[in-house]
Amino acid sequence: MTARMLALVSDCYGMGGGIARYNQDLFEALAEGGARILVLPRKGDAKGIALPAGIEQQPPIFGSLRYSLNALWTAWRRGPFDTVFCGHAFMAPVAWLAARLIGARYWLQVHGTEIWTSQPALRRRAIEAADLVTAVSRGTRAILLRWVDLPPHKVRVLPDTVQDKYQPGPASDALREKLALGPGPILLTVGRMSAGERYKGHQEVFGALPAVRAKYPTAVHAVAGGGDDRAWLEQRALALAGPDAVRFLGFVPEEELLDLYRLADLYVMPSTQEGFGIAYLEAAGCGVRVVGGVGGGSADAVPERIGALVDPSDREALAATILDQLGRGRADPAAVEPYRRKHFGAAAQRLLARFVEERR
């Protein structure tokens, strides 16, 4: 019997970011195993994108009420579905209702900060009603179980996956020259610069740079990504690190990220609230050691073989950790192997098969 899934998600095809990427990886893995998936996104238009066999994505619908009504109508008219997948805890009430409406099982995915504190009553009930919850890390799972009334066996870990293209390779001298990064060493951070996500630790790295540059005078911090906080971070970089220590690269297209990782000498993102942190594994897959922050789910993504975790509020400790990791050479890409697509895909397919079988 072919599993049929209705996926209610914040974003998927046609959008960037970690949650969209996770949804794409998950649905492609399940479709490769024979599942048929209808995706209803809040954001992101798949028009013009050749979707994998077995996956259909409807146009995005803005507005909570319109989206909810469309989700219920689609559940009723496009079925039967044996599973309703909810890709974000904020959408749990409508996913729960849709599953009850059509008699399907209800699978909730959680990522990080969205469930790290207790939720409003209706959302909490909808979370607790899930037949299965998957979390991207052990840290996120543990935080959820502190406040939610769910049997632990219903909350499973299904971590992010790193694409196979992230492998060691030669650094691009042309890219180094284009970005005017100099001889380095190059510290790299990739991520959205949002005023609501200052926990990622950009300015903490800026504060540590003078100590790093005391040993490596030509060290530079390359910051890739866009967002509403760039102007503020540029001011902080100038005040904390000086006029030539930080290069803001802006948004870097997906097709250029591989070369950017390979150019780096160290990936630094001392975030304290990552649900997982796929960028750590992308960097490590390219042989780049990483420095992450203590807290959240980063511990799953940063084993000792590829880097270290540090409290970013301790500037001296952060600088010392950066210097230590720069002196250790390249990361061991084999440490990333458990997170490669083939392992993720097999785990996701087994999970869905057991989930559907339990209903019978």
Write a structural description.
The chain is α/β, with parallel strands linked by helices and 360 residues long. The protein has a 7-stranded parallel β-sheet with strand order 3-2-1-4-5-6-7, with helices on both faces. Strands 10-9-8-11-12-13 form a 6-stranded parallel β-sheet, sandwiched between helices. It has 13 helices and 13 strands. It folds into 2 domains: 178 residues, Rossmann fold (3-Layer(aba) Sandwich); 165 residues, Rossmann fold (3-Layer(aba) Sandwich), CATH 3.40.50.2000. The mean pLDDT is 92.
Q: How does the SSE layout of this entry go?
A:
Layout lengths: L3 E8 L6 H15 L3 E8 L11 E3 L6 H14 L5 E4 L5 H11 L2 E6 L10 H8 L3 E4 L2 H10 L7 E3 L15 H7 L6 E5 L11 H14 L4 E5 L5 H12 L4 E5 L3 H10 L2 E4 L8 H8 L4 E4 L4 H4 L5 E4 L4 H12 L14 H19 L1
Parallel strand pairs: 1-2, 1-4, 2-3, 4-5, 5-6, 6-7, 8-9, 8-11, 9-10, 11-12, 12-13
Helix pairs in contact: 1-13, 2-3, 3-4, 7-8, 7-12
